[in-house]
């Protein structure tokens, strides 16, 4: 829509100038140099092209917002693997990702050469290109950041084909395309009525061509094409063929003449197209844009005005270049995620057709939110609370609704979202990168869920040594650098289990754990000089640091005589320096532990690859933090949050100050069980609590608070009876958290973080 508007503004300026108006560019652009595509989609069909046309170069326009400069500037593109169905080197020529805007230019094009002979006849191929931010250019408007290049060899069977099938055989796209090449244009049923025998003579040439070129696999029936039924008038048959060609020539000539006289519009706006007399006078009642959630139904009832009510009308609904219905009214289930794709409705009569175009976007209701794993008498349950629409209630049956034939098991155990490890800006995000992993016991089950629809992708079968206890799972920070090769780490029964990216369990040969080690069911990871995962050894009561680079295992020297309550990464930084990738890097770790009714806080930093930790904080928290308290640390501020019943307090570990009054109060009947942050948002706290006054099993409640104000927190959301006994609450994003934080880099908050 943006580009179409601009195309109309240019002629207006020209008219003003012609009328003597002084037209000036009064507002030259000042700001960051931006880049975007000139359109959001391109479409080309080989369908009616001559068979000899085997390649087509499609030009993708790129423009800048800013002024041309005297030197070349670099920009980058990437291919979206989730939305690209075409294969580089087969369906199209591979593209260089790093490209150039020439000196003095404000625009350029990306030539995309597509190859016809490798295309399936019924398939529409898509190449999805996205712009990537560079030192020279930031990205422009959202709708200009990606373009879908669509191409096909599709050519639908004409309605007259069956009439000639005795001689032509089964419909084949290549048969018809070769005919179009020789005949000069597609043909209509009227052509068949007037020139049946001339057309069959051309098809005889088509048959001969494919007999001489068997590599195409195109065959015809072994029958002779008929000749004119009245041989004495065979010349007239040939003459009629010539007359038809002359008619076509004259029609083309007349069209060109009318165009030159201004009677034919060349605009791509449907309203500017020449009016074709038709029994379908008007189609209305269709909006220009539709946005629906995944699995919702697109319901459209168009209004159709006819000049002849007795005329037979046919209908076609097309979504993203595919016909989805031939009924008058549309009821289409949106089972695929779509982004502003092209759609149309066509009502056709024997005299013509009317087309109404529209756009459709299908979004995931699970794009960004909270996941709560809880337990009832009936078994484990998974609850989802979406965050893009804050007022939306939580969905307690996110697993059950999307997997009706599967069971989570009786005992809720572990839960994690792999996307938290995608900490680099501009990562190529794949489905496997953002999976949800959860486990349950009685019986033991491990599921991998699709992050967009909560459906089970696969059920993991343990094939390692010994018994498997999937009590806790961690996907460490740093996987963006492939240092851990997509491995998942499980803890349970005192030991570690490593699950490789291919879902198989492996035994590490590089790691030598401390003798007699018994790991607690908790872990965290740090992104320091080495990428480190951190465990607590209950046997020695010491921390264990495992190198992500070298696989080295180092046990700390500080004995912490406590029962561990939580391990929390803290003191995070964002790599926003020039040349940095803006990733989140937690540097230190907090251990909260209890001993009887007393509690203690330890804060450690691993010094390097080979030496032990340094103790940064050792604090007796008795009387403040309770043995039953939920705890978490702010991702980037030196603040530990902890609960007492339904109240939440803060501990500034840099200033060694505990709150004397509650910072947040949920109420006397609540018991806080989990406190969670999104690592890229220091100002929002997510809370899972249980209602002690609730007599039923659905005790869990969710709360969301804005904590940007140091003196008081603002409640953004609350919902009750969203689950059973709380086991695990996590933030589940969409892999774009870092991008969103960087986009807010001019805010006061971001300046504070830096």
Structure description:
The protein has 754 residues and is mainly beta. It has four domains: 31-152, Immunoglobulin-like, CATH 2.60.40.2030; 161-260, no CATH class; 270-363, Immunoglobulin-like, CATH 2.60.40.10; 369-753, YVTN repeat-like/Quinoprotein amine dehydrogenase (Methylamine Dehydrogenase, Chain H, 7 Propeller), CATH 2.130.10.10. Helices cover 13% and strands 38% of the residues. The chain has eight helices and 48 strands. The strands form 13 sheets. The chain has a five-stranded mixed beta sheet, with no helix packed on it. A five-stranded mixed beta sheet has the order 11-18-17-14-15, with no helix packed on it. Strands 39, 40, 41, 42 and 43 form a five-stranded antiparallel beta sheet that branches. α3 crosses α4 (189-212) and α4 crosses α5 (234-260). The two termini are 38 Å apart. 33% of the residues are buried. Residues 1-30, 229-277 and 746-754 have low confidence and may be disordered.
User: Regions with pLDDT < 50 over 5+ consecutive residues?
Assistant: 1-30, 229-277, 746-754
What amount of the residues lies in strands? 35-45%
CATH superfamily of the largest domain: YVTN repeat-like/Quinoprotein amine dehydrogenase
**Overall pLDDT confidence:** 81
Percent of residues in helices: 10-25%
CATH architecture of the largest domain: 7 Propeller
Distance between the termini: 38 Å
Radius of gyration: 33 Å
- Count the beta strands: 48
């Amino acid at each position: 829509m943006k580009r179409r508007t601009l195309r109309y503004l240019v002629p207006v300026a020209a008219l003003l100038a012609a009328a003597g108006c002084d037209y000036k560019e009064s507002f030259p652009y000042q700001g960051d140099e931006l880049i975007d595509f000139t359109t959001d989609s391109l479409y080309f069909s080989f369908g009616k092209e001559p068979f000899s046309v085997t390649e087509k170069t499609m030009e993708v326009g790129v423009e800048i917002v800013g002024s041309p400069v005297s030197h070349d500037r670099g920009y980058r593109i990437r291919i979206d693997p989730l939305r690209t169905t075409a294969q580089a080197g087969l369906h199209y020529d591979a593209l260089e990702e790093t490209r150039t805007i020439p000196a003095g230019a404000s625009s350029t094009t990306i030539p995309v050469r597509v190859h016809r002979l490798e295309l399936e006849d019924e398939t529409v191929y898509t190449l999805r290109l996205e712009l990537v931010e560079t030192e020279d250019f930031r990205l422009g408007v959202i709708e200009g950041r990606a373009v879908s290049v669509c191409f096909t060899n599709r050519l639908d069977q004409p309605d007259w084909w069956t009439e000639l099938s005795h001689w032509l055989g089964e419909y084949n796209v290549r048969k018809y395309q070769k005919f179009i090449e020789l005949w000069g244009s597609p043909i209509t049923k009227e052509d068949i009525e007037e020139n049946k025998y001339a057309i069959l003579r051309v098809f005889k040439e088509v048959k001969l061509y494919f007999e001489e070129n068997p590599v195409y696999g195109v065959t015809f029936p072994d029958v002779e094409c008929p000749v004119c039924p009245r041989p004495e008038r065979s010349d007239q048959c040939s003459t009629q063929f010539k007359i038809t060609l002359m008619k076509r020539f004259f029609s083309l000539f007349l069209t060109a003449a009318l165009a030159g006289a201004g009677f034919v519009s060349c605009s791509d706006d449907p309203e500017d197209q020449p009016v074709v007399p038709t029994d379908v006078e008007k189609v209305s009642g269709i909006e220009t844009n539709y946005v629906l959630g995944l699995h919702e139904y697109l319901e459209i009832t168009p209004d159709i005005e006819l000049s002849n009510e007795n005329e037979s009308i046919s209908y076609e609904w097309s979504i993203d270049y595919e016909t989805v219905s031939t009924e008058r009214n549309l009821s289409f289930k949106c089972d695929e995620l779509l982004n502003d794709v092209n759609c149309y409705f066509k009502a056709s009569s024997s005299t013509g057709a009317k087309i109404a175009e529209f756009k459709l976007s299908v979004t995931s209701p699970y794009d960004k939110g909270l996941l709560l794993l809880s337990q009832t008498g009936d078994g484990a349950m998974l609850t989802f609370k979406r965050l893009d629409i804050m007022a939306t209630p939580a969905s307690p049956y996110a697993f059950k609704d999307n997997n009706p034939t599967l069971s989570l098991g009786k005992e809720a155990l572990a839960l994690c979202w792999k996307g938290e490890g995608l900490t680099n800006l501009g990562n190529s995000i794949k489905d496997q990168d953002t999976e949800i992993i959860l486990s349950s016991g009685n019986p033991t089950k491990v599921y991998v869920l699709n992050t967009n629809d909560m459906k089970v992708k696969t059920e993991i079968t343990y094939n390692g040594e010994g018994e498997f206890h999937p009590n806790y799972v961690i996907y460490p920070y740093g996987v963006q650098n492939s240092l851990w090769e997509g491995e998942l780490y499980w803890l349970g029964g005192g030991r570690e289990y490593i699950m490789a990216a291919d879902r198989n369990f492996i035994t590490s040969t590089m790691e030598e754990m401390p003798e007699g080690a018994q790991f607690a069911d908790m872990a965290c990871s740090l992104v320091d000089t080495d990428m480190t995962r951190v465990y607590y050894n209950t046997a020695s009561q010491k921390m264990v640091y495992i190198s992500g680079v070298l696989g080295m295992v180092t046990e700390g020297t500080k004995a912490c005589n406590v029962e561990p309550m939580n391990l929390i990464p803290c003191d995070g930084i964002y790599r926003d320096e020039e040349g940095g990738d803006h990733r989140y890097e937690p540097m230190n770790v907090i251990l909260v532990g209890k001993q009887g009714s007393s509690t203690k806080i330890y804060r450690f930093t691993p010094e390097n690859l080979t030496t032990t930790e340094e103790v940064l904080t050792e604090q007796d928290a008795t009387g403040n933090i309770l043995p039953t308290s939920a705890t978490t640390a702010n991702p980037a501020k030196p603040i530990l949050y902890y609960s007492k019943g339904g109240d939440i307090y803060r501990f500034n570990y840099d200033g060694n100050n505990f709150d004397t009054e509650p910072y947040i109060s949920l109420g006397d009947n609540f018991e806080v069980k989990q406190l969670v942050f999104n690592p890229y948002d220091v100002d929002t706290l997510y809370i899972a609590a249980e209602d002690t006054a609730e007599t039923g099993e659905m005790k869990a409640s969710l709360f969301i608070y804005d904590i940007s104000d140091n003196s008081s927190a603002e409640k953004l959301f609350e919902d009750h009876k969203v689950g059973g006994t709380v086991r695990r609450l996590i933030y589940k994003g969409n892999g774009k958290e870092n991008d969103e934080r960087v986009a807010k880099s001019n805010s006061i908050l971001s300046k504070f973080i830096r």
